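Order emerges. One example.
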Amino acid sequence: MAGGAMALGLPAGAQPAPRVPAGYPGDYAETIARAQQEGAVSVYASTDLEAVQPLIDGFQARFPGVRVQYQDLNTLDLHERYLAETARLGDGRPARDAAYADVLWSTAMDLQIKLVNDGHAQRYESPERRGLPGWAVWRDEAWGTTFEPAVIVYNRQHFAGAHVPGSRSGLARLLQEHVQQWRGKVVTYDVERSGVGYLLAQQDARMGSEFWYLAQALGRAGVRLSASTADMIEQIASGELVLGYNLLGSYALSLMERGAGIGVIAPRDYTLVMSRVAFIARRAPRPHAARLWLDYLLSREGQALLSRSTSQLYTIRTDTDSQHTANALAERLGYALKPISVGPGLLAAQDALRKRAFLARWREALKG
């Protein structure tokens, strides 16, 4: 992830009032007008700028004069930067032009929920709530925005004529059988540097002890660790690596559709599905623009733009005119999909003692 700010669009000025979307409350026109007065929305996000650019362009066309200041950050950097900036504020409030997040949007669901639980989010009753599944919204503060499976990605040439693992136990056995020739050619997230990697591993461990058996097999195979989904999948596509475990499937499925020599397996025992979680910062200096951004992100139009991005992110809604919806994904990969609910169940993952114990066991397992 890049760490630079992207300020896009024209400065705020005299702008025609955009129409209020159908089905929105009548006073939403005031939200739009105030957002245009604020002139910008600052979004701290872990979604690559290239993937979100169509959404940014659509938003700025829809709401002239509200430019998007987009910070593309690693999940842990995003979390730590926001907390550091909040600490520097003390009891004060940021000025309207302050370099401070209005919206936080991250794949690290547990870190987001911890921030919400600790009082960092504004409650907002979005008009788009009715279009979302119940598991994707918590307290009208935290909002799931995508539907992304954690999958096994493999290089098809390496597996020509060979058995492809369909489950975690099958993958562990395969790693044992090929431990010598695949040594150093298997990859997964570095759970100590990747927020989404830690989330997925921790959720795996909750599903049963089989995960630790697989972790030991990964360790014996000299597993590589990375914090970048794109880097891992591109190395698998090039043949440098044989396969990757627990990678976010949206990028892999998109690359496969464009002709890359990779395959994607949704484990039949269960396939975790995560969602990029967004919330409006409690002390957002541009709160009306933040509401506009969140509503647009959750809207049919915004979700359709996400699904047409380079990464073809699968959308949380089921009523968009797109092949990249949760329902389409379930039909494509099978029905062992287990969405990770946006809510308090994620807080256990961020308990300091539990996290320390989990990471210690993870390091031990990787010794093989």
Notes: The chain has two domains: 33-147+275-335, 149-273+347-367. The radius of gyration is 21 Å. The domain at 33-147+275-335 is CATH 3.40.190.10 (D-Maltodextrin-Binding Protein; domain 2).
